[in-house]
Design brief:
- By secondary structure, this protein is α/β, with parallel strands linked by helices.
- It has 3 domains: about 70 residues, no CATH class; about 180 residues, Zn-dependent exopeptidases (Aminopeptidase, 3-Layer(aba) Sandwich), CATH 3.40.630.40; about 35 residues.
- It contains 12 helices and 7 strands.
- It has a 7-stranded mixed sheet with strand order 2-1-3-6-4-5-7, with helices on both faces.
- The longest helix has 24 residues.
- The chain is globular, with a radius of gyration of 21 Å.
């Protein structure tokens, strides 16, 4: 195993055509051994990889091999005692962050702040219950979607829980909804959704299947929880109270604990909707291209008319 790691590091070290982003993405699985704090450090540095010097990147790669993989360095005492009964690793993903506020333009409450707070509270609740927890971000930074997925996929015995809040132009819209994509993620989605809906004073919008990037690209059970609408005055007021965010974290944690005993509820399949949206976007792009040929607009004027990528 060490020889394979060393070979991979040498490849990353001496290949000049690989970008820093690619180096860090490849580094994450190498630095994943139990309790290795370098893994978390590398994942937090990923958003700034373009600004890192080649010397620092090479030092980080070498450190991934030489750093002792000692679980005592970072695993809480409670996690070590509970590992024999449940070795599950929960990867918690706080949506958005950094320059990405989340939500819609003009939204008063920043989604990135609410998601991070709930994610941190969820980490505390799960850690106290003996689970090993990994955060894709633990501060107000922007983490690219591929990096979030890479972190999740480096834990084969893990689950991925992505925290979001909803938004829409219609202020009256509200409720809780939970997304999944792969079939093995449905029990987790159903369990978390049932607990959150049962503990929140919001309507039930159901469990939904949709191909969001972080759900479609993960190889472990993965769910995305929409904890209410920040554009709904009532739900936004709830979300801004610490007690409600703590309640959300506790209910999500209860869903994680009860994932194996929960019945897989019926769900709304929106994968076809997503595909039709992509096809519609392609058709509109072709129409725009035909119009561009017959117009006198500059060549780059249509480049900004593409559809917004709303994948989480």
């Amino acid at each position: 195993m060490a020889a394979v790691m060393l070979s991979e590091v040498k490849h990353l070290w001496f290949t000049p055509r690989i970008t820093n982003d690619q180096r860090l993405t490849r580094l994450l699985p190498l630095a994943r051994p139990r309790g290795l704090p370098l893994y978390v450090a590398a994942s937090r540095l990923a958003p700034f990889s373009a600004k890192l010097s080649m010397t620092f990147i090479r030092w980080l790669l070498a450190l991934a091999v030489t750093w002792p993989a000692c679980s005592a360095l970072s695993a809480p005492r409670a996690s070590r005692t509970a590992e024999s009964s449940d070795s599950l690793i929960v990867v918690i993903d706080a949506g958005h962050g950094g320059h990405d506020r989340g939500g819609i333009p003009g939204q008063r409450v920043a989604e990135k702040d609410m998601t991070l707070d709930v994610a941190q509270r969820l980490r505390n609740v799960l850690s106290a219950s003996g689970y090993r927890v990994v955060m894709t971000r633990d501060s107000d930074v922007f983490v690219p979607l591929p990096t979030r997925v890479a972190i999740a996929n480096s834990y084969r015995n893990g689950i991925f829980v992505c925290i979001h809040f909803n938004a829409t132009q219609r202020a009256g819209a509200g409720g809780i909804e939970t997304y999944f994509y792969s079939r093995d993620s449905l029990p987790l989605a159903s369990a978390i959704h049932n607990y959150v809906v049962g503990g929140a004073p919001s309507s039930n919008r159901g469990v939904r299947r949709r191909g969001y990037y972080v759900l479609r690209k993960t190889s472990i059970p993965a769910v995305l929880v929409e904890c209410g609408f920040l554009t709904n005055p009532t739900e936004a007021a709830y979300a801004q109270t610490a007690s409600y965010r703590e309640k959300l974290a506790e209910e999500i944690a209860a869903g994680v604990r009860g994932r194996n005993s929960a019945a897989s509820d019926s769900f709304i399949d929106q994968t076809k909707v997503a595909k039709s949206e992509r096809h519609s976007s392609k058709r509109s792009h072709k129409k725009s291209a035909r119009k561009k040929k017959s117009s006198s607009k500059p060549a780059g004027s249509e480049a900004r008319s593409g559809s917004i990528n709303r994948e989480a």
